[in-house]
Batch of 3 targets.
Target 1
Amino acid sequence: NAKSAPHIGGGHFYQWSRAEELSKILIDFIKLD
């Protein structure tokens, strides 16, 4: 079960970095307006 712990953490980090990327795209989109 210890092997799955880092996997969950990595998945959470991936979700966070992806959300950060989406927010940056959103900001650029708003700046275009």
Target 2
Amino acid sequence: KADHVFEPNNLEASIGDTVVFEFYPLNHSVVRADYRYPCIPYEDTGADRRGFFSGFLPISRIGNDMPQWNITINDTAPIFYYCSAPGSCINYGMVGAINPNSSAQVSEQQNLARAANYMLQPGEPFPAEASSSMSSLATSTPTAPPVVSSTPTSSPTPTPAPTSSPALFKGAIAGIAIG
């Protein structure tokens, strides 16, 4: 697997589909972001917003049962996400999208990520320089947030036990490799 990428970095999903993120070495995460705010947790970009965070899943080696983390799609609006491992978003542009469209594209999000001056972990405070950079990014009106439920399918350990979930029967399953 490639280093510091979501593979694929965009996919189409329908309501009821489960998107499975599969983790590869060394240590990555999945954090929801808003379009045009690529390396900032979604909940920090506006009032009453609820994001998601997989937590960090450190992996020491590749095996048969890599840890996975799932979200169930409840809305077909674009959902953007990034890896919050140090440097992944701002140095490598490690971002992705579910249901991107012509007005909300992964390539634009990736360019903005690489141009960002900082990235945040969920719960981390904004740096002092954030007020000017946040206002410069706010060039579009955000849409109503889609509803996303998240369910980890393994514990954050290097050798997780295989698990299954009844949510897998609701819709199709799409996989994204993280590494």
Target 3
Amino acid sequence: MRNLSVFLHFSDENDHSEPILLSVAALFVFSNAVALGLARDGRIDGSTLLGPLFWLIAQATAVFLLQKYAPNHDPYLLPIIGLLTGWGIVLQDRLAPDFL
């Protein structure tokens, strides 16, 4: 009987993909927040960038903890989840601004 366990080991080629994808996600989230602030009242204030700022802190914490406790983690999963979470925060700020 064969062993069905799979051990994932990512090569050195994928070491650079996670920071690049996280940077793209951060650029997307903050550009959407800036566009929302400009579309709402023509200015960018602290309340517009508060949600994405907390998102950025949470992403940085997640990156630190993953690199410390799971160095062979999937380099694509965190950027995808981060992009969707940040986009959701910006959409929530657009649809229910008093909620945040």
